[in-house]
Amino acid sequence: xxxxxxxxxxxxxxxxxxxxxxxxxxxxxxxxxxxxxxxxxxxxxxxxxxxxxxxxxxxxxxxxxxxxxxxxxxxxxxxxxxxxxxxxx
Length: 89
Description:
Layout: H1 3-42, H2 51-82, H3 84-88
């Protein structure tokens, strides 16, 4: 196995991981920022107020984009299975 093949596999895997995590985390981060601005504007210092909207937004993102996330992971897995002969020989 050449180092270039390993670097290509690692780059592809890292790209998929960053994409999947970003799709799940960024909507919750945006809602958390909005709630934090609201809390700062109204001087509400309740720590649990930002938890529920972030949880709901994360679950909503998983529900809406779950099919795409699974499809992306399956395509990557199939690509890795197809690369086995290249990596071994």
